[in-house]
Design brief:
alpha+beta, about 350 residues, single chain, elongated, Rieske Iron-sulfur Protein, Naphthalene 1,2-dioxygenase Alpha Subunit, Chain A, domain 1
Amino acid sequence: MTNTRPNFVRNCWYVAGWDYEFTAGKPHPRTFLAEPVVFYRKGDGTLVAMADRCVHRLAPLSLGRLEGDDIRCMYHGMRFTADGKCVEIPGQDMIPSSACIQTYPVVEKGSWAWIWMGDPHLADAALLPDARGLDDPVWVLKSGQLDYAAPHELINDNLLDLSHLAYVHVASFGATPGWITQQPRTTQIERGVRVERWVESAPPLPPLPSLAAYESVDMWASYEFLIPGVFLMYTSLHPPGTAKGSNHAAPAGDVLFSNFTCQAVTPLTAGSSRYFFSWGPGSQFGGEEIAQQMIDVAMAAFLEDKLIIEAQARIIAMSPGEKIMPNAADRTVTIFQRMMERMKHPASTSS
């Protein structure tokens, strides 16, 4: 039996799920990078991740039973420790040294569980993106997720180029042409890109008393997009004229409203992905009610993205040999795509 694996970036941290998804007392099956993975919590709460297949007949361990900190395959009863070592084979005393399950490094940070699918010796917690957790006191964040019938690269491209807001999100976000008429400032950073832009004459949303006096506002949006597909964006609203008064650099002066969003894209298979997101206001600008309004609007907007991206994926699948024609808005996309390609083939590129 052979298994040909799709070509993913593996030596990086992927979001496996929200920490609250992985409840104690039972196994949780997932698929990442076309690999079956099972999660469970040990008695002390530590999260374990290992390949979701018994070494005997490749039956899923996620249909097994937790016994203390071990997991037992419920097909023929083999029992494995949290580090993947087989310690019991019913009906025989000799346990082959090769009877081990692959395990994966896992870290919980920022309300996400992160998994490293590559070389475990390279797994470095210092490389984890600085995502804000749902308990961060500076922000009031709500969470959600969507599954896509589309490759993760297409969702990354969508987040790297926010010019699509001017067309895809007119109904949900009330986006204006300012998202496409002025190109952002893009800076390559370690393991990603930083993108900054002003959108002048933006609608004063959400409808708050602090914004009621303005027919329009200047919006500052600054985000980092990090390998393999983590989007962290700060947005602030300012009185009209702030963009010009700041020479279109980072804002100085009054902030009428601010919000933060953390988003992540994880490939499930070559043609399917899971999209995680949180969003909400600065705690000084709103509480649970405003945060819920914002995440409801975000869900509507992300469903708009899902519609166009899944349709795009279907057309691409039916168009072998057709090439994508880049335009000026694709500069950030191109920089990030090249970074990802270098990580897929590190031995073939010079540092």
